[in-house]
Amino acid sequence: MCGAPKQGQTLPSNIDAEKETVLTGQVVDAEGTAVPGAFVRLLDSTGEFTAEVVASGSGDFRFFAAPGTWTLRALSRSGNGETTVEPTGPGIHTYEITVK
Fold it and tell me: For the whole model, what pTM was predicted?
């Protein structure tokens, strides 16, 4: 069984978004439709694998990370996509990954 937290846009009540850097968002296809079950990977600034979660039924994903430069990569049956993000500090940072 996967040890990753349940994915979704709503944070658990025990998470303080003023202290945590949260990377969250949704995987979508070219038409903007949610892509459930995509594997979403978090890569550091050198491209090294850091973590992976499976997107929820509505395509949502979430990671807790440090401020800095990260790549969010989605792999799915609908295609693959990625985006580079640079959260500068604590808070909820929301991104969309389009797969093609």
Answer: 0.87
> DSSP characters for the chain?
---SPPPSSSPPTT--TTTSEEEEEEEE-TTS-B-TT-EEEEE-TTS-EEEEEE--TTSEEEEE--SS-EEEEEEETTEEEEEEE---SSEEEEEEEE--
Q: Domains of the chain by range and CATH?
A: 21-98 (2.60.40.1120)
From first to last of its 100 residues, what are the pLDDT tens digits of the chain? Answer: 444 555 555 666 677 778 899 999 999 999 999 999 999 999 999 999 999 999 999 999 999 999 999 999 999 999 999 999 999 999 999 999 999 9
Whether 89 contacts 51, CB under 8 Å? no
